[in-house]
Structure prediction request, 494 residues.
Amino acid sequence: MKHSKDSYDVIVVGAGPAGSVLGWELARRGVSVLLLEASRFPREKVCGDYIEPRGLRVLEAMGCLKQLDQRSPLPITHSATFVDSECHYRGQIPFYGLLKDLPPHGYIVPREQLDQLLFQTAANAGANVREESVVRSVSAGSNGVEVETRCGKRRVVFKGRLVVGADGVNSVVARSVDLLANDPRHIALSQRAYAEGLAGDFGEAVFYFEKDLFPGYGWMFPMRGGTVNFGVGILAESARRLNVKVPSLFKTFFEKLRRTHHRCEQLKLCRPPIGGIVKTYGGAGPNYFDGGLLIGDAGSFVDPMTGEGITPAIESALIAAPVIEKAVASGRFDADFLSLYEKEFRRYFDASMVFVDFCAAVMRNCHFREPWLRAVARGCEIAQQDHEFARTAGACFGGLEINPYNVLGEMWQKTVSELLNLFPRGLLSLVENRPNPVLAAARDWLAWQAGWWESITDDPVWHVNWQTDLQVKAIRAISIMYESKGDPRARGLV
Prediction:
């Protein structure tokens, strides 16, 4: 039997961070909003659980940070980077603590805790909330929307003026309007688990860059009491081309983590690992349609380099809220009016995301993984000695303020410096009987050349498409660099 409920201004499908933050913000603005969640909280979610300082800034504005702090989460202030199982950088996260309005740390907060807190905050602000409401179909148009759900054994139809898809990577809303992103170049496969037995309470996030994970990485994020969130992620396109299975990568990484990291020797799984996918910003489409918008994972708001999605999801919700408020006030729900949303999220995200998307695209070619990994290792060694280089160049991987000019300038300066010092270092290595950097540089040059020809001969069509993709992304990144006046994400939305 089908039941019809009262009508709302906005129906938000999905109550993860994006959906709940939008429900909270719309309720504060006096918009009638219904927040639908398929599960019942608390519920587990595949995620690295990392909330970086920009996300914590929003949680503070929502009044949630004080509740998190009462649980005494472990502040993440340091990082370590391993390349081929050898540590090449260990120290403070170089870009934390530089912006006065941001906390100088991040937190690891399991999603079963975070999502329940945000959901309750939205409800407290006045959002109408429904758990265990599985959306079966969405009918959206400029004259109104209908969302059909299964609530227990009942089929219930909710009516509204606008619908927002915040229902994740397999969004029913996105699929219903033919906006579901499905490009393997911008999809990462992951598997993560919780483990116990980490030695010591020290807030050091650990990253592993390995041949079998390229392009991708492994992570270990610590929490209080020796518990960790750890896992692996790899580009879907590469997994398919190389015929690798993520569960196998996860198993190998877990063994490697216990073997090579001195604090991880006693790690034991709390429960079996679970897998998921993320869709990154490079594949983000317009994310608007007659009668609605897409936010969070449904709209591909994920960092292309790190796969971090909690903060971008929250930010996409805050960008959508004023657009929705204007739509409700004017009675305009057509795609032309809602296209304002794309203009606003592009203005906010493009300045940083387009550049890191280009960086991620450069590293898509698996034939260059060995020279790339050696370059990463050398970059980490330089960063260990040069804080400015670590802060600026390292911003491409989780930085809070990305300036492409500065990043490229620092990398070019260090490259020239390395080349100029190559022969003096080579002579010194002969005297001290150490590995010769001249021979290492020659080996790297040959590796780049070999990788290029291997890529061409292995799959000429893919290689040409990759080159074309790089050119398109480079042109877009350069044009945005000329237009940009800094990184809006550093200033934030609250």
